[in-house]
Design brief:
Length: 48
């Protein structure tokens, strides 16, 4: 059983998801895997 199902059964509400994060996640899911890797590497390198 997933944690989401457990939370629903207990009546617990999850905090709302930031709409910007959700939009970014959904857009990333539509990109080809090679492009997602490229963005992941660029974001990781730019942190330093």
């Amino acid at each position: 059983m997933s944690s989401t199902q457990e939370n629903e059964e207990k009546g617990a509400l999850l905090p709302p998801i930031n709409p910007e994060w959700l939009a970014e996640f959904e857009a990333a899911a539509r990109r080809p895997i090679q492009q997602r890797w490229k963005y992941a590497v660029i974001k990781r390198i730019s942190r330093f």
